[in-house]
Design goal:
Shape: globular
CATH topology of the largest domain: Rossmann fold
Structural class: alpha/beta
Number of helices: 11
CATH class of the largest domain: Alpha Beta
Strand order of the largest sheet: 2-1-3-4-5
CATH architecture of the largest domain: 3-Layer(aba) Sandwich
Distance between the termini: 57 Å
Length: 229
């Protein structure tokens, strides 16, 4: 009886899933729930509700995508880091890893794992983050190390690495089909501020018009990962 009670008490590490795709949430939940010490304490598709669920369920770890229904994952990471600094964040996304891994770590996340990875790698990432380590793939770690070693930024005028975190958010939301009002609502900024960011993006990427910028953003979102830099 004692052993049975101990087994029932093992699931003491709570994880909140934030992703805008129900099938992804269900698949990830299934992987996590199979572990004797891990449990999913909640799930949602948007950043606003995620903050409410963190306050209510007190998770140890939040696993989130960068693309959410009402916001961008980078903003959620920063909000979580400000309001709940003890809650760890792990990004689980299809976005280009070498472009985003360093950014999410700077924002306060503890790791980045691609959705294409097998369950064993996803669990490895979860375990490492929960143990206090930083997790990212060998590819991302190698790229970041090369950037630090060279002390230079990419030289291409069309490199999205030139964009700030906020500019990148606007750029990706444009590529995802969001208009100015929708982007402003998702990022909680004025429409005029969105226009300012778009102007800066055009200048940094050496693009002449908003139409050209929009086409470039859409193409960028559609590129295979290894070609999206």
């Amino acid at each position: 009886m004692k052993d049975s009670g101990t087994a029932r008490q093992k699931k003491n590490t709570r994880i909140l899933i934030v992703d805008d795709h129900p099938l992804v949430r269900e698949s990830l939940k299934r992987i996590i729930q199979q572990q004797p010490d891990l449990e999913v304490c909640g799930e949602t598709d948007n950043g606003g509700q995620a903050l409410e669920l963190v306050a209510k369920t007190k998770p140890h770890l939040v696993i989130l995508d960068l693309t959410l229904k009402d916001s961008h994952g980078l903003e959620l990471i920063k909000n979580l880091n400000d309001s709940y600094p003890k809650v760890m964040c792990l990004v689980f996304s299809m976005h280009e890893e070498t472009l985003h891994a360093e950014r999410v770590i700077r924002a306060g996340a503890r790791g980045y794992v691609a959705k294409e990875e097998p369950p064993a790698k996803i669990l490895l990432a979860i375990r490492k983050v929960l143990s206090g380590e930083i997790y990212w793939s060998e590819k991302a770690a190698s790229w970041v190390a090369s950037q630090i070693a060279s002390r230079t930024r990419p030289s291409s005028n069309f490199s999205v690495d030139l964009l700030t975190d906020r500019e990148l958010q606007v750029f990706e939301l444009m590529g995802g089909g969001q208009n100015t009002r929708q982007i402003a609502a998702m990022l909680h900024i004025d429409t005029s501020t969105v226009e300012t960011y778009r102007a800066r993006i055009k200048e940094k990427l050496n693009l002449k018009s908003t139409s050209e910028l929009l086409q470039y953003a859409i193409r960028f979102q559609m590129l295979p990962k290894d070609q999206s830099r």
